[in-house]
Each structure stands twice: as C-alpha cells, then as structure tokens.
Specification:
Radius of gyration: 20 Å
Distance between the termini: 25 Å
Strand content: over 45%
Strand order of the largest sheet: 1-28-27-26-25
Number of helices: 0
Largest sheet: 5 strands, mixed
Number of strands: 31
Length: about 350
C-alpha cells in the first residue's frame, strides 16, 4: 500500500541517549516558558533503569539555529526495568505513573523540573511484568493490567498509594493494554485482538466485550495499545499485530472500523505496516492540514498516529492513504503528542535515540 508524503516534511531532531529508551512522554508544563520530557532508560550493560526529566533546549541562542538538545534535570531509580510510563497534570502539578517488570506500580511527582519524588508504590500488584498502566486525566488514579489476567486500580491518597484488585481472571485471560475513558470507565485489550469495556461501578467482570473474528482466521495477534478520545468516549481505538489499527464503537459493537491491516475480503486496507507490530496508537489532535469539518460527524474517525516495529511513524485516516512522518531502519517503540503543542511529537528509537518532530 502506498504511503503519502507530506508536501512539507516535519523538522526532525535525533538525539542519541546511549541507553535503551523504553518509553517517552511529554511532561505537563511546569512553567510557561520551559518544555520537558520524561524518559525511561535502560542500561543493558549494567542492567539498571532510570526515569528522568529532560529539558528540551536550543543549545545555540542564535535565533537562526533550530538545533535541539535534551538535558537531564532530575532522575529516579525504579526497582526494576520500566514496562509502562504515563503522565498527567493534577492541581497544576505534573505526576508520573511508572510500572515495572517485577509487577510494581509507582507514582512520582515533579515538585519542579529539578526534583522527582516518589509519592508511593504498590509493590507486586501483578505476578510478573505489568503490561500497561494508564492515569485518569487530571486525577490520581491508575489502572494496571498484566499477562497474569489481573486488573488493578492504584490510587494516590493522603496516606500514600493504595491498590485494589478490581478483577482477576486467574490467568485465563491475558491483558496487554489499558486506557481510561472516564473516571469510572476504562478499556483493556489483549490476545486475539480482544477488547473489554469496564465500569468500576459494576465489578465482577467487563460490561461489554469485543470478540468478533473479523479477520476470518487469517490473522491472529495481540492489542498493544489503546486510545480513547475525550470527546468520543464511546469509541475505543486499538493497534496491534500485523499492522492492525481498528476502532470499536460501543454503539455498533460487532462492526469494527478498520483503519489499517488485514480485513475480510481482499487483503489489506490502507496498511502502512502489513507484517509488523503497531506498538502505539494515539488520536492525532493536530488537524491543521485536514478539513476539520470532515470530522464533525460522529461517524467519521478522527486522524490516528501510530508507530511500528518496522520503524514507521505515520498518520492514518479512514479511507485515506497513510501519511508518513518518519521512517527509520529500527523500531519506533513509543511516541507522545504534546497536548499544548500538538504539532510536536517525541518518539523513542530502538537504536538508543530519541527523535523530536515539529510539523509545519
């Protein structure tokens, strides 16, 4: 499938880190003038991990210079390698949720750009690695899921961090992705492109499930990432194996909207990455290049950004050719779109680098 090139490509800055970059996220603004990112780094030689706040700087004050650099301002050492990383802003104060491969969840606060403080931890809430965590937007509660089939709610209160096992499949179901839709509802994903919708007010199991075999057995895989747009909480976006990106609309539960990947009928549908894993998907809030009126209808999918194992960062729209933003000779493992400046994207490259893109 052809991939459309932008008429004006984004400015790309590649910044070597000399450690493996497990995850990257923009940090909510600490001050009006500064910009910061959070990196989860792994030193394969020493076997140690760090979570670091980096300042995004222009090292040359000359106005004609567009070079950028990342400068470490604060660091925190987790008990084991980081498996998932999320950020939010709570009371004008940035918070960071970190999960690890030993099954623990930690909540950190950025007191300022030079101070990263652990507010509390929920140790070994999973029997094995935590697959994914997500923070409630503007809240102090985190959902965590794992291959052990557990779904946990981790909360930050006055006395520290507490955890509650919301559901346990006892290993019968494996979860790999999670995303809040509201303070009471969230979605999870796992093997077989399955999705589950949960309501914390209705414990005991998911209130709805998506299990339709829309690939007719020609593709099996796993959901790696989920996103839910704040204005369309009835639609769950998912990305996973075989270049698959699809949306599950709770109003038409067994009719997924296929954006990329293997579909029923004649093979691929606008697939940007046919045989590769889609590691992360996010709704793209930067729609300057598109006609915003096209997305006013609730039946039209909003643009989606994705990154993949075969090194593609692209924007995918319903019934349109994908628009390639970056193509690398190594995997792009994670990315994040700046909520304050949606034209800016930060992503982690498998070859121990961070890339920052500024779209025109």
């Amino acid at each position: 499938m052809a991939v459309t090139q932008l008429p004006r490509p984004p400015e790309v800055y590649k910044l070597p880190q000399y450690k493996y970059v497990d995850a990257v996220r923009w940090l909510p603004p600490i001050s009006a003038l500064d910009r910061h990112a959070v990196l989860a780094l792994f030193d394969s030689d020493g076997g140690s991990s760090t979570v670091e706040i980096h300042s995004l700087l222009n090292p040359n004050p000359d106005a004609s210079s567009t070079a950028k650099s990342l400068t470490t301002l604060a660091a925190w050492t987790p008990p084991s390698r980081v498996s998932s990383l999320k950020t939010t802003n709570l009371g004008h104060r940035p918070f960071i949720a970190v999960s690890t491969v030993d099954g623990s969840v930690h909540v950190l606060a950025a007191q300022n750009a030079h101070s990263l403080v652990e507010m509390g931890a929920a140790p070994r809430v999973h029997a094995g690695p935590v697959s994914c965590i997500d923070l409630v937007e503007g809240g102090a509660e985190c959902v965590s899921v794992g291959e052990d089939g557990r779904v946990n709610l981790v909360s930050l209160g006055d006395s520290g961090v507490s955890s509650f096992r919301f559901f346990d499949s006892n290993g019968l179901v494996s979860y790999s992705a999670a995303r809040w839709a509201s303070p009471n509802e969230f979605a999870t994903g796992g093997l077989g492109f399955g999705l589950q919708w949960w309501d914390r007010r209705k414990p005991g199991g998911p209130v709805s499930q998506f299990k339709c075999n829309w690939t007719q057995g020609r593709a099996s895989g796993i959901v790696h990432s989920i996103d839910i747009h704040p204005s369309r909480k009835h639609t769950c976006l998912a990305g996973g194996s075989s270049g698959t990106i699809f949306a599950w609309d709770l109003r038409w539960q067994q009719q997924p909207i296929i954006l990329s990947g293997v579909v029923m009928g004649d093979g691929s549908k606008h697939s940007v990455s046919d045989s590769s894993e889609v590691w992360e998907v996010q709704y793209d809030r930067d729609v300057k290049s598109s006609n915003a009126s096209n997305f006013s209808s609730s039946s039209r999918m909003l643009p989606v950004m994705m990154c993949s194992e075969d090194g593609i960062l692209a924007v995918v729209e319903e019934d349109e050719e994908p628009v390639e933003l970056l193509a690398e000779p190594c995997a792009i493992n994670s990315f994040d779109i700046d909520k304050q400046n949606p034209s800016d994207v930060i992503c982690s490259l498998e070859w121990e680098s961070v890339a920052i893109l500024t779209r025109p």
